[in-house]
Amino acid sequence: MRIDWRALFGPVMTAATSLAAIVADNSLVAVPNPAPLQVCIVAIAAALSGVGPGLVSAVIAVATTAVFLLHHGNATGLDSAKLIRLLKLAHTETGTALVTGMLRKKMVDANERQRQRHATATRLAAALNQVDIGVVLLDADTRAEFINRAFRKYFALSDAKADSKPPFIALMYHGRDAGCYEL
């Protein structure tokens, strides 16, 4: 079974950051609350692999922040102010994971649709290049989106000019200048 590093990155990074902050706060110097950094890590986790790992990172962030707040400062324990901070953090972390994960899903779906459209366009171009009749597909501005091989051959149109998406009128002028009157 292959382990997906993207799914593990967020939870591992959240746990490592939180544990480093807890250890440093207890044994070295007073460290500020790592919650703002954890929100960023949750966003990265959800952007890399979706809502699931983002929510796992959010749970780890809230749990480790609770441990951090238990032992941080002069007073130990969770008073009402610390509980309110934890609830706000839980809300923020969950919202970040959900929104970023849904945006990622939307982006992945859009990329898949674009890939499918490109594959369809490639198959259509290959089919139209097999036809013996000259075919030009125009866009809304009457610029050539596609010119098949037969048209290029009949009108002595170079690949560079055809691939530059010329306007239809330029193709007509080219046909006139090339002397393609019999067509």
Summarize the structure.
The chain is mainly α and 183 residues long.
Describe the structure.
With 183 residues, this protein is mainly α. The chain is 71% helix and 4% strand. The protein is built from seven helices and two strands; from the N terminus they run H-H-H-H-E-E-H-H-H. It has helices spanning 5-27, 35-49, 51-71, 80-128, 149-154, 159-163, 168-178; strands at 136-138, 144-147. A two-stranded antiparallel sheet has the order 1-2. It starts with a helix and ends in a 5-residue tail after the last helix.
Please give the structural blueprint.
Elements: H1 5-27, H2 35-49, H3 51-71, H4 80-128, E1 136-138, E2 144-147, H5 149-154, H6 159-163, H7 168-178
Antiparallel strand pairs: 1-2
Helix pairs in contact: 1-2, 1-3, 2-3, 2-4, 3-4
User: What would the average pLDDT be, to the nearest integer?
Assistant: 86
End-to-end Cα distance, whole Å, is: 62 Å
List low-pLDDT spans. Answer: none
Could you give the count of β-strands? 2
Q: What Rg, in angstroms, do the CA atoms define?
A: 30 Å
Silhouette? rod-shaped
Number of helices: 7
**What is the chains' assembly state?**
single chain
Helicity, in percent? over 70%
What class would the helix/strand composition place it in? Answer: mainly alpha
**N to C succession of SSEs:** HHHHEEHHH
User: Main sheet: which strands, in order across?
Assistant: 1-2
Largest sheet: 2 strands, antiparallel
Percent of residues in β-strands = under 5%
